[in-house]
Amino acid sequence: MILNARLPLEFFEARNALRIAQSEGAEQYANDSYQRAVQLMNNADEYATSKHIDTKPLIAVSRDAVQTAEDAREIAVKKLDEIRLANERQHRAMHRRNRRRKPPMRCNRRTKLSLTRREIKQQRLRRNRMRRKHAPTLPAHERQPRKLNPIWPTARPRPRLHSRRPKTMQSSHV
After folding, report:
1. What does the pLDDT read at residue 122?
2. Which of 30, 47, 83, 167 is the right S-S partner for 26, CB 3.0 to 4.6 Å?
3. Buried/exposed 119-156: b ≥16 CB within 10 Å, e otherwise
4. Torsion angle (degrees, nearest 10) of CA 115, 152, 136, 134
5. pTM higher than 0.85 for the full model?
6. First to last CA, the chain
C-alpha cells in the first residue's frame, strides 16, 4: 500500500473503490470486470512508485480503475439479487407444492363449496380417526351412551343455558 501526500486523490479513490467492489463479492460474481480493475490499479501503482510521478496518466488510470471497480460492484450486486430472487421463487414453489399435497384438516364454508362430496367425506373420516386416536379411551362399562335430540336425531343435544319456564316471584300466602 502506497501512502504519499503528493499522490492525487483519484489514486486513493481507486484503491477504495476496489476494496468496496471486493467486499460486495465482485471477485466471485463479476470476475472479469474485477480483474480488469485490479490490473488498472496495478498500473496506477506503477505510476505512483516511479521515480518521477507523472500525475496526468496516474489520474487517468486511477479514474478508469474507479469506474471499472464500480461496474464490477454493480454487476456483483445484480447477480446476488438475481440469485436471492431465484432462491425465493424456488422456496415459494416448493411451499406451494407441499401445501397441495396436504389436504386441510379443517375447512371453512368457502373451501367446503369448492370441495367435492367425496373429499369432504374423506376429511371427516381422517378427522374422526385422529380424534379417536388421541382421545382418552374409557372401558366399555364406563362409556355413556350418546343422547340424541328428538327433533333432529343425528344432531347432538343443545346445552340449556336457562330453564324453559321463567322463574316467577313466589308470593307467600298467609
Report:
1. 86
2. 30
3. eeeebeeeeeeeeeeeeeeeeeeeeeeeeeeeeeeeee
4. 0
5. no
6. 116
